[in-house]
Amino acid sequence: MEQPRKATARRFLEETPERDRMPAYALLCTDDYLEHDPAMAEETVGRDQAARTYGELVTAFELRQTPESMAAEGDLVCARFTIRGRHTGEYRGLPPTGGTFEVTGHVTFRFQGEKIAETWFNWDLQGLMEQLGRPGDAAL
Questions:
Q1: CB 104 within 8 A of CB 90
Q2: Of residues 134, 45, 48, 47, the one with CA closest to residue 92
Q3: Cβ neighbours around 66 below 10 Å, total
Q4: Cβ-based burial of 136 (10 A; exposed 0-12, middle 13-18, buried ≥19)
């Protein structure tokens, strides 16, 4: 069971020009999915709000997440990932800088059957802002 869950977690994280995470929320997550991310304006959101928030981020920052390593046990999958991107659009009043960035993060997925029921993200927002020359803007 751990291998299929790791494959689902990897599919959720990876973004390519052909497949981004927007449709993955509906396909891979439970209806009552919860996403926890202390870097966001609302730390805990449901599936639809998580997809909207992610859509705003990926549009403003041209994000690409790459899973670097994964471990699974029971209904949990943990992943270490790298986020790369370029700041090309306005986001919550922050005008685009055109700058590029690369930061790391970690996420724990909790599965309910074959679907993702909950995630806990932790990633280096402060490092992203420093790379864009905006060290004081740590709350996206």
A1: no
A2: 134
A3: 13
A4: exposed
Question: Model's pTM, two decimal places?
Answer: 0.89
Query: Percent of the chain beyond pLDDT 70?
Result: 91
Residue 121: name the closest of 26, 55, 50 by CA. 50
User: Domain map of the chain by residue range?
Assistant: 2-131
pLDDT digits (tens, 9 = 90+) for 4-24: 999 999 999 986 555 567 788
What's the number of CA atoms in the CB half-sphere (13 Å) around residue 56?
A: 13
Two tokens at 97?
């800088």
Average pLDDT for 24-53: 93
Q: Which of 12-26, 70-84, 97-111, 124-138 has the lowest mean pLDDT?
A: 12-26
Tokens describing residue 44: 């805990």
- Which CATH number describes the domain made up of 2-131? 3.10.450.50
Residues 6+ apart with CB under 8 A from 52: none
Tokens for 138, please give them.
Answer: 């740590």
55 neighbors 26 (Cβ within 8 angstroms): no
